[in-house]
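Form P-L/3: holo structure prediction, ligand nickel (II) ion.
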Amino acid sequence: MNELQDAWLDAWRFAARAHGAQATPGEPFPYLMHLGAVGMEVLVAHQISPFDDPILAIQCALLHDTLEDTATREEGLVSRFGPRVAAGVRALAKDASLPTKAEKMADSLARIRVQPREVWAVKLADRITNLAPPPYTWSAEKIVTYREESRLILAALGEAHGPLAERLASRIEAYPPVDR
Ligand code: NI
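OUTPUT (holo model):
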């Protein structure tokens, strides 16, 4: 019965070390704030409608930016968390060699779609979390683009988890929120 808690703590500790002093974008908080929020979405989603492999879902949630944003290597994730978690985190990382943001997103969504549904759910949870009030530096155009991109994610991955898809849809509807 302690498996989920231990899996959370193991990935949480690894992510804390990997992200170090990084801040959550646009906020004066450690990056763990973002990771904790994504983990919470996944955990509550699992309570409402259980995943086949909740450990995969939770560990991918907490580790989802380690390959994209830190010096963590995929082999390190394989040896510590196994090949399924490592492959999920790889799919969730954008390919930096692609030229445009739209191409990076389309490529990542295509790679997520061949992963287990737990990985799709992490992307939904990540976008739910990111649909917070945008930084004041964002233009109206950028906000519209972000909302459109969120609709793309919902269309591509929503079937993975009904309650998460509904939550993302309502966040998109209310975007940009006036306050948190
Ligand atoms: Ni994220």
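COMMENT: Residues 47 and 112 are 23 Å apart (CA to CA).
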